[in-house]
Amino acid sequence: MMKTKREANALLRERYVTKSVSVQNPIAVVRAEGAKLWDEEGREYIDFAGGIGVMNVGHSHPEVIAAVKEQADKLFHTCIHVTLNEPYLQLAEQLCRIAPIVGEKKALLVNTGAEAVENAVKIARSFTGRPAVIAFEGAFHGRTMLGMSLTSKVTPYKTGFGPFVPEIYRMPFPNPYRSELDEETLGEQAVETVVRAFETYVEANQVAALIVEPVQGEGGFVVPPTNYLPLLRNVCRERGIVFILDEVQSGFARTGKMFAAEHYDALDPDLILVAKSLGAGLPIAAVVGKADVMDAPQVGSLGGTYGGNPLAAAAALKVIEVMEREQLPARAEHIGQKSVSFLRELQQKSTIIGDVRGQGAMIAIELVKDRATKEPHAEATALVTKKCLEYGLITVKAGVYSNIIRLLSPLVISDETLQQGLQVIARAVRETEEELG
């Protein structure tokens, strides 16, 4: 009996792809444009995942495609350690121009967010001469050994992979939804926990860096109290600790600003990490930071064969141009307002939506078994996402307990398509409530 394309792809996956690679939506996408995807059977889907926050400028943006084609006609690769290439230099210049860091800046181009994390810690250790790093509960910083060590979620990211990198100290991250405190007090107490750690966990003069996501990604799109990051930055500044903002997911217009750091007055991190939507689907990432910090490691100690590849750098240059010209940060704010308004209205009618939160178009729905106890409801989350796929919507989960649905649609999505996707979520939530009782 002849197999369908989907059945054939499923067999290929089972036979040749390690089972350790998870797939939330078991379809094969063969074409994409804007905020729409088409699978191997020709079915159309609305994309609320964006390749996990990678496609902020939209799938197959014609200007990005043209830029990559033009670069491909001229130069694929040299390796920055062998010769310079112009896209690398131009992208470093543009990243330094837009990064919300005070003073002279420099940049390092790499391939992935995890590489950016690794190199940021190396830079901080070289600059300070100290070994320790402070990270946070709920954090996600990649799947490399250091990235896993900094990451908070155990299953599936860390199970069976230890021992992990030493000299990492994990602090609580303030989550307004799961606290009875007012936000100002919550932020102050969370910072006091970090300060107390210098007496109970590690001496401040042994801490090279503190790394934090301005909005937690995999942790569930948790937005901290508004006073938290500025207070945290002051703690670092007073003690000579390098303050690292991981904007791999929150950067490039997602939160309503080009960087989430811009929601604060003069937050002024020492290093900012970017990746994901920087390359519109091509692998590229960067560490951007204060020049004296970036120049601390010795010559030849940073880099890699493919870092700043000309094709990916050309795509990134066009992404920055498109985002600024088309005012995608403002578009993200509009998407966020419409989404939050719709979802909070749905929340009022729902028994399983515990919280709707986010910043800009970085929106999360947290599902719980009981809105009073706030017990996570992973089973409901899995069923809602399964139903969304059935009804033509691609979603992606998040959270330490896998009970959060995150909205990461391309920022070029039309209001009409956005509304259609939100209606699918509403239908899936209602049906899930009925089925689970």
From TrEMBL:
Signal peptide from the UniProt entry: none
Cofactor (UniProt): pyridoxal 5'-phosphate
Superkingdom classification of source: Bacteria
Enzyme Commission number(s) from the entry: 2.6.1.19, 2.6.1.22
Gene Ontology MF annotations: (S)-3-amino-2-methylpropionate transaminase activity; 4-aminobutyrate:2-oxoglutarate transaminase activity; identical protein binding; pyridoxal phosphate binding
Pathway: Amino-acid degradation; 4-aminobutanoate degradation
Pfam families reported in the protein's UniProt record: Aminotran_3
Gene Ontology BP, a term: gamma-aminobutyric acid metabolic process
Protein family membership: Belongs to the class-III pyridoxal-phosphate-dependent aminotransferase family.
Protein's recorded name: (S)-3-amino-2-methylpropionate transaminase
